[in-house]
Design brief:
One of its GO terms (molecular function) is acyltransferase activity, transferring groups other than amino-acyl groups. The protein is 32% helix and 34% strand. The protein is an alpha+beta fold. Strand 5 and strand 6 form a beta hairpin. The longest helix is centred in the middle third of the chain and has 18 residues.
Length: 151
Amino acid sequence: MMDESDLSEASLVHKAAFPRQSFSSDWLACNLKAYPRFLSFVAERDNQIVGYIVWAQKSGFRAEAVLELEQLAVSPAHQGQGIGRNLIEQSLPLVKDELAKKNSKLKHIMVTTRADNHAQQLYKNTLGAEVEATISNLYSADEVLMIARNV
């Protein structure tokens, strides 16, 4: 799990992965402080943070939780090496353990991403997520809403 000592390095990953966003450290710090609604994890290589993932519980703490893969980022120098896939596959069981602590189980996972983001294939392959809707011009371009049902 991400902790406060990871914020500086994780912020560098955020800044590189999302150049249109600002205040990287503040963004990650507020997500970290919102535990257990937000669950954040880092990926390290050679004692350096090269990626992170943030999961968010949607619409309250429920017996059957709907999670959002809120944000997944991998340093551009480390993309294409399976780090994003590993972050999803290794953090999801930990998220399920956290849900179980509140007598909850995972129902669905939602992901929003740019319509032109090649990561859609990653979400489909790792989670079984399918595009359910396209939202025109939401942030910087069209955005797709993907849902992985009955995970």
